[in-house]
User: What shape does this take?
Amino acid sequence: MDTMQFKTNIKCSGCIAAVTPALNEAAGKDKWEVDLQSADKILTVSAERTEGQKIREAIEKAGYKAEQVA
Assistant: This one.
């Protein structure tokens, strides 16, 4: 398992609720979290590095943006 981070435009708990089904499917339940206190709203995901594109696409399908930063 790797830890990946994405800069997102997820701003609030309502946004998190909107992306939860997509992220649970792409990354797995309890394998991700969004730091709403961070200026960049960093999403941290524990998944295989090869899953990065799948996770980014899931976020974008839910209507949000994600840019992998680590």
Notes: The two ends are 14 Å apart (CA to CA). The helical segments are 13-26, 52-61. The longest helix spans residues 13-26.
